[in-house]
TrEMBL record:
Residues that span the membrane, as ranges: none
Domain of life: Bacteria
Keyword RNA-binding: no
InterPro entries to which the protein is assigned, alphabetical: PP_kinase (IPR003414), PP_kinase_C_1 (IPR041108), PP_kinase_middle (IPR024953), PP_kinase_middle_dom_sf (IPR036830), PPK_C_dom2 (IPR025200), PPK_N_dom (IPR025198), PPK_N_dom_sf (IPR036832)
UniProt entry keywords in alphabetical sequence: ATP-binding, Kinase, Magnesium, Metal-binding, Nucleotide-binding, Phosphoprotein, Transferase
Protein name stated in the entry: Polyphosphate kinase
Polyphosphate kinase middle domain: residues covered: 135-307
Organism of derivation: Actinomadura rugatobispora
Gene of this entry: ppk
Active site: residue positions: 439 (phosphohistidine intermediate)
Lineage: Bacteria, Bacillati, Actinomycetota, Actinomycetes, Streptosporangiales
Enzyme Commission number: 2.7.4.1
Family matches, as Gene3D superfamilies: Endonuclease Chain A (3.30.870.10), Polyphosphate kinase middle domain (3.30.1840.10), Polyphosphate kinase N-terminal domain (1.20.58.310)
Residues that coordinate or bind Mg(2+): 379, 409
Amino acid sequence: MSVNPGQIPHGAEALPDDRFLDREESWLRFNQRVLELAEDPRLPLLERVRFLSIFASNLDEFFMVRVAGLTRRMATGLAVQSASGRQPREVLERTAGVARELMLRHATTFRDDLLPALAKEGIELLRWDDLADTEQERMRRLFRDRIYPVLTPLVVDSAHPFPYISGLSLNLAVIVRDPGNDATMFARVKVPPVLPRFIEASPNRFTPLEDVIAQHLGQLFVGMEIVEHHAFRVTRNQDLEIDDDISEGLLQALERELLRRRFGPVVRLEVEDSISEGVLDLLTTELAIDERQIYRLDGPLDLAGMSAIADLDRPELKYPPFVPSKEALPADADLFAAVRERDVLVHHPYDSFTTTVQRLIEEAADDPRVLAIKQTLYRTSGDSPIVDALVGAAAAGKQVVVVVELKARFDERANIAWARKLEKAGCHVVYGFVGLKTHCKLALVVRQEADGALRRYCHIGTGNYHPKTARLYEDFGLLTADPAVGEDVSALFNHLTGYSRQNSYKRLLVAPQSLRPGLVQRIEREIEHHEAGRPAHVRFKCNSVVDEVVIDALYRAAQAGVPVDVWVRGICALRPGVQGLSETIRVRSVLGRFLEHSRVFAFENGGDPEVWLGSADLMHRNLDRRVEALVKVTDRGHRHELVDLISLAMDDGTDAWWLDGDGTWTRRSAMTDAPLLDIQTHLVRSRRWRTVDA
């Protein structure tokens, strides 16, 4: 290993240049872990189907954003060597190779594993030729009545240029011949996204929509001979580029950019492996792509649509149902009195979001003693009770301030709609800072108590105010009336709405000013504790670990002998277990029924653990280009609960993926004599939950 002295603290060893794993490949390895869940025969069958669908959706987003962004930077000459030491071209080629390998594995799992397993359960996905005569006749009627009216065949000739192919649309490339002059032409037929991806030919027997269309092409090209047809799909750059310094309003700029995004360059072409070379050459030329961007797969394409199969009403093929606990804030308890008495830690989805966080906003909106509500909104649902409560609060005359992040990726249109709805209702809506996304999860309720005093009630969380995803995403939230937190959150909202220069807080670490330095300082403090013979241990739980400054601090802690445990869901650029660099570092990943989404940072602190939770991942964008907030957890019981949870995930007896120093993830899911502990199932059974019959 070569040595890069960098900015090495006095007394620390030099760190090697190749100490970081490549972030793009690490993300692909995360999606590989999702695929391994689809491959796991121990999981309920329809849950495996769902993971198969999630893999496809994840990979779509990866190409739309990460591959597209790298391609754009290379085209403009802005791409630089990655922290892993790879040149941009090398990263792109390596990414394409790994992605291709995983896409083929994904298609094989669908064809050779899940299709036969579904068939055994009476759920069949069939190509046209495998349908019964009666089913084909039913599909012909369906085509005539529902499909044909929404199709628009587009031919390419001297009067009709090659049509625009929208991103993620499924299409049929059709070659037709005119019997009158024997001339052949290319035509494109878009598979309508408004119709189901898989059409039910008869109960529990489905066929791809493009197969039905393909069998009726003669009705679209009357009098023409159909020479050949092939399914294809393109992925385009969908990342947004907003100039925050433009003179027009951010709302208008974002709306314009959303229109432009439809026409981003193609970064991937998926075709069925039966496609002819002539048609493929035509697509390659017209879409201006090269061979490396072409992915040949067994059909059908677009398996993200398998989510509809996963949603079938077959409870015996799914995870057993359950009801989240309501014990954190019982319905008969006075919410404000309970939070005044002590901080309340909620763990979703194990604790009900509806009866805790949502209840706080709804009761605040209805409570005549509440004077003001301030809240950040990054993502929320289409029929959000949170938004409705804020609208109702404004209508009741309360001061309502909402910081809406318009640029939440792929939720931009929805957030524009919420912003306008809130503004129309009389809420004060602001969009945060120029150049920064507002990603922190904060709610502040100002209430006048019976004695006339004002008290502030706060919620600081790790997840979005989204009632639907709160049932699927694992997140923590802290409800507190601690005056120090109230002062901090008030100051942070003033920072967001009034551009104050607040940089220091009592119980918060806030990015981009103090969060990274605060974490690094505490890592360095663990080194001091260890060298002094006091208990020292660093435990992190987050979605991604990429930031080089924090990773280097963890390496220095490891070199000093401090145990470091990292529980990460997705990307991890840190190399654990490398001799002389990270021998005391362990990295684990847990994937399963719920999306692990919470961020927790715990420090042993000489035997008096210090624990923080909040919205920030260890990524450049979170620490440098977003407003993020971590809150210090002061209740001793809460601190132990959070530390114990991370320790359980790191235990050798827990089902998890282990990261090796070379970037390889290995699942440790079974012992010789007994299965390992599934941490999510354990929490469902042992926390404050009750199961219900299917």
